[in-house]
Amino acid sequence: MGSEKEFLQNYKLSDYERPSVTADVAAFMVSSGDKTDYRRNPENKLQILLIKRGGYPFKDMWALPGGFLQKGETVEECAMREIYEETDVMPVSIMPVGVFSAPDRDPRGWIISNAYVSIISEESVRQVGKDDASDAQWFSVSFERDGDIYHLNLTYGDTELKAVLAEEKSHFGRTEFRIVDSGRLAFDHASIIAEALSALRSEAKNYDTILDFLPEKFTLTAFQKVQETIMNVSVLPANFRRMVSSYVEETDEYVRGEGHRPAKLYRRKNNS
Amino acid sequence: MGSEKEFLQNYKLSDYERPSVTADVAAFMVSSGDKTDYRRNPENKLQILLIKRGGYPFKDMWALPGGFLQKGETVEECAMREIYEETDVMPVSIMPVGVFSAPDRDPRGWIISNAYVSIISEESVRQVGKDDASDAQWFSVSFERDGDIYHLNLTYGDTELKAVLAEEKSHFGRTEFRIVDSGRLAFDHASIIAEALSALRSEAKNYDTILDFLPEKFTLTAFQKVQETIMNVSVLPANFRRMVSSYVEETDEYVRGEGHRPAKLYRRKNNS
DNA sequence: CAAATAGTGTCTCTAAGACAATATCAC
DNA sequence: GTGATATTGTCTTAGAGACACTATTTG
Hints:
Two copies of one chain form a homodimer. In chain A, a hairpin with a 2-residue loop joins β7 and β8 (149-156). By secondary structure, chain A is of the alpha+beta class. The first copy, chain A, folds into two domains: 19-203, Nucleoside Triphosphate Pyrophosphohydrolase (Alpha-Beta Complex); 216-268, Orthogonal Bundle (Arc Repressor Mutant, subunit A), CATH 1.10.10.10. In chain A, 35% of the residues are buried. The first copy, chain A, is 25% helix and 37% strand. In chain A, the strands form two sheets. In chain A, strands 1, 2, 3, 4, 5, 6, 7, 8, 9 and 10 form a ten-stranded mixed sheet that branches. Chain A has a three-stranded antiparallel sheet with strand order 11-13-12. At the A-B interface, α1, β5 and β6 of A face α1, β5 and β6 of B.
């Protein structure tokens, strides 16, 4: 053991070239739209946080929030820090999507990206407030399959980003995507977003994952709408209630004044 | 666009310190043990490939195969290359497990590891042949839960590595493990192996994943034994057959001379 | 024949899907 | 009352688990 100490004292990491390492985060939120009818419930939208790039390369194009790994932090911490810096919200949960390390993926040089999905509850963002002049904006997401081709459409106000991707390979329940048209998204971020969505959808079968999107107290209909928005499916309310019954517990509060029967508020049951 | 070109010509990645990046691979194989009884089928064992370290740090301790990312390759390619260099076998499939980037995980300095699970079919390794004097050996794996504590036991001949881990947090179907006792495994590899096993088990519910462990032609009993070995469960043969029936198709060959009714060989059906 | 595995048929049980019916509110 | 959502109950169906039974081989 003495000689291991000795070895380490003299050790110098060799001068092989090293890559720069970044963490990029696809941060998703499910937002309830505005009420159009006093008694009809609003539609939900899946949204993703994008940042308008201020400098080269890809100046004025939209990109995922992210940044370089700093010494002394883990990659997860870096990812959480980037989201916190952009939104003032600490994400509830974060999930690795994959490593993007194609040698030519960044025109500035050898930079590999660790991609994460993060889930942010609408309530926390609402409290912080959105700045319309900011370079960080929430885009509505649609991701549709059309044969072997996938269309990823991201919209915020008049800004529409339309990326086209092709299914590359599918392994372990997740799919890799090749960019056909990056649709004004910076770097390879179109494929990162596609894989992040694919990962999110395959996880969203798990009700615990969905619960991370919700505030502390919620109605079962809100719970259901969030899952339907993420998964892009629909379930009969009666069956949904039965299936989540072991994940939630009643409170004695109700949501009133909605123009229809008030809904009981539930909270997450934190058992197994 | 002219000015982006100009920007890139003058761009130099800033002199922030960069980490070294490695890929480490938990390569698993399911081996059929030796026959003890002329008519009884042999037991199966789940095995993992470990390398005895020749130099410091952790000299003479066992570690996962892995190595530094080289310029011009992706992290996946690096992981596959490392396995190929150690076994002469190109893995059928490879799955990301996570990024291990705790600042103090490697005494040599700032080195982050991208961990992968890889699945190797016994047949391909048999053909290449094993070298008993080699520093690369297949260890039998047992990973048992005991309350909040997990015991990871790896054995090869007289060599027994006994690591103890604690469940750190469980998110998205996967669990993170904190090392209580590394059991003579180098670096943080005990926790990488634990997480790799946890990831493998959660994927092994998918029959396609299991099929990657098998040779081209196999009996349904072999198929079942491999799944039972990985998942550490048991299923009634009748039900297993029914459940995999859509994944396989018959050949007209049989395995004879086993002291009991010959089993039909099947092959993977490559549909949907 | 004995011992072992290979393979088939069928009953049961459970969880998900379908759907009908009732409850309760704001206007 | 009307129109909307909230909530409950029950029938149906698909798939997994249990288990009894038959088939086929080698020593």
